[in-house]
Please model this.
Amino acid sequence: MANRHAVVALFAAFVLAVSAMGRGNTAAVAAESELSKTVGGVTVYLGVVPAEMVKGLPAGSSTERPMHSGIPKGRHEYHLLAAVFDATGGKRLSDAIVTAQVSGLGLSGSKVKLEPMQISGTTTYGGFVDLPGFDLYTVKLTVERSGASPAVMEFKYDHRR
Model:
């Protein structure tokens, strides 16, 4: 149970941080870490949380229930979140097409379109992915927007811990 509380706290911190960035905090947008990248004029902050985080929410409390073709039932399902910003002005992008290809070491991986969803009044993109084993995963994210070349970036997600 303590582990679940830690995951809930981590998810809440991600939501709050992403919400703050969308409200004009350009210093936060400029920072780059293992789960944030800036490529082709786009900054992306990536989050990965167990799908059970949305499974346990009461009806009507989350936009997840009608989205992403329903909440998956598998043991190794995770919710991939991408907060997408214009790198120069820090404005959140709400009209992009975001896809993710998630693969373990030496594997081609699966591709999923991340759907726009509302978190704290801001647009974030999300979708469910299967992470079946303890592995170092590569998340290849492609952000397409009108009038710009696609921004392609790779993140490393360490799922061995």
User: Anything to note?
Assistant: The mean pLDDT is 75. Strands lie at 36-39, 42-50, 77-86, 97-103, 110-119, 122-130, 136-144, 151-158. The chain has three helices and eight strands.
